[in-house]
Amino acid sequence: APDIPVIDRAYSKLSNSITVEWRAVLGATNYMLTAEDGDSFIETTVKNSPGTVTGLKPATLYRITVRSINSGGKSQPSPFRKVKTVLAAPILSVHSPSCDSIAVSWKAVHMAAGFSVSLMRSDGLGRMLKQNTTNTSLIFTNLDPGTLYTIKAYAWNANGMPGDDFTYNQRTSPDAPVDVKVAFNSGALRAVVSWMPTEGALTYSVTVFSGLLKLKCNTSSASCVVPSLQCGSEYYVSVTAYNDAGSSESTDAVSLKTVPCAPVNISIEEDEPGHLLVSWSSVSLGHYYVVFVKSDDGLEVHCNTSYTQCHFQSDCGFTYFISVFAYNKAGQSPLGDVFNYTTAPCCPSDFRVVFMSSDTVRVTWAPVRGADLYETRAAGGSGVVLCRDTATACTLSALQCSTPYNITVYSFSEARGSNTSCAPQHVATAPCSPEIKNISKEGLSVISVQWQPNNEEATYVVTARGEAGLWHCTSTRNSCTLMDLPCGSAFSVSAIARSPAGQSLPSYSIPLETAPCCPNDLILAQVTQSVTNISWSVGRGAQTYVTTLESPKGQAKCHTLQTYCLLGCITCGTNYTVSLRAISETGLTSSCTYQGYSSSSCCPSGVKLYRLSNNGIRVFWRASDETINYNADLRGSKGNFSCTPSSGLSHCDITKIPCGDVYTVVVAPVTDKGPKVTFCPKKIYSVTCSGSSVGMVISRGKSNVKHI
């Protein structure tokens, strides 16, 4: 085992440990320190000197020994030293009772004869304050508000030996904020409270109170918004600063007067036409009032007064929107109720009366302001006729014709009733409708119309209306005559009465029909010797026609719906009188006469051909009348030939006619107008070449071809 170490020094700097110093022992690898207080001991192994034994009791006397250790074992304990541990540190309780002081207190420490407490700004600025005391509390004053301080305290024993120290950081509470300002927002009824920031303050609390009402606003900035203030109230505003040490004193209260409340009990009266009186009740904190009156056309006027009423000019038919505001230094009161007042509507202007008929009148007028409804009243005759409508026009019906009336238009509004001061207009209704009693024909195109007069000082106009046009006649009596009516036309005849008051409704129409027109053109064409075709133009108004050809030898007649007709049994070479009757659908008839007609001359009979010696042909026939001239035509494939005899003869010759051909032969009378008759019978002859220029006529019966 190693040698026994020798303690050079043993001392206590902390209340729970003792430090030991000794001389090193050769061959020792470790050392064991032992502290004994009579009740217990504590051992600690260390490598070398110095060594510290911990876990000891404060202010306790210990016997300290040291033993050296190596692989061979432990030495004997060294001679002991007696060492007492220092006093325990006082446990501080610290707070800042005001912005410039810190109070420190602690519990009594065992074996302590006194205490030493020091204080200094944590940022190192300023001087350190130190106090010694035998008490267990003390107060540092005249400190900086809102400043962090470091506090150190220890106890000493009767020998003046200091014990463990205790360190504590404490901030003084903040000073009260300064330069408190209040800005009031009258529109939002809220206040913005601001102040200068306070050293060391972490948060602020704004208190706004009025009577029993208290509002608070907490913030970490240097301003705060206090909402939901009441109009017409006086508030007191104070600000308190806070940090972890506590709160400052509250600032002196600042008075805040809000805007006045909106005036109430508003009444609007039209004390006389064209003047409005607006009155209201006074309000708390209201210094003066402003009344705004805006009409529905956008024009706005106002009145500024310290009284509780205002006068305004007004016009008819306007709606006025009225609002009253109270004012003080804080601003304008909130918007209260907006009242509207509608004046009586104006009387209708641009009044016009238009008669639609003798018993109906249409009244129109220009729209007027404020009118929701109009009433038109017509007084006269046997009573009153009313019409109510929202439109600016009204039709009064069932009036008595040819009667004076007083017509008045009143305007109404739902808000204000009617304007009964509107003036009437005097009018008279149009004449009554006449009644046609009789229509008589005085000539081919002359019609007389009679009616029952039923108006005074009226002019009557009779109108015949049809597709052909209009015909009129005028009279102040009870009849007039329509002249020059066209034939074949249908008319509707009516009558009206006119006077300065207007025109009556037309009478009931009477139908009138004139006789059909005679056709302008009539053409006769003989189709055969006994049949004639007659055609004519359309006669206006005619449905059927009857045509007649008449001569001493007889009569030919045709009744048809068409504009042409075939008449048979016509005698050739006869003069006829021509007549036509046009008949309408209702049976009206017009007799029409035309220029006489002569039928064509009769066709000859016994037509024969004879060969002549000079290669010619003689055509022979029997004439029906020796005074008639005839013409003979021969038509074949080798040529066409014709001849006309001298007057009175019944034959004619054609020379140098080619043989060996078949000819169609027609002999027809020649008319005075030039063209030949085309309906005479045709005969076919074959002219053969027999080697001689003289031959005989040979007839081939069945083929109706005769050979010469």
TrEMBL record:
CDD domains of this UniProt entry?
FN3
Q: Tell me the InterPro entries matching this sequence.
A: FN3_dom, FN3_sf, Ig-like_fold
Per UniProt, residues of the Fibronectin type-III domain are: 1-88, 89-175, 176-261, 262-346, 430-517
What Gene3D superfamilies has UniProt attached to this entry?
Immunoglobulins
Show the PANTHER family listed in the entry: FIBRONECTIN TYPE III DOMAIN-CONTAINING PROTEIN 7
This chain's protein is named FNDC7 protein
| Species whose genome carries this gene | Leucopsar rothschildi (Bali myna)
Lineage summary: Eukaryota, Metazoa, Chordata, Craniata, Vertebrata
From the UniProt record, report the name of the gene that encodes this protein: Fndc7
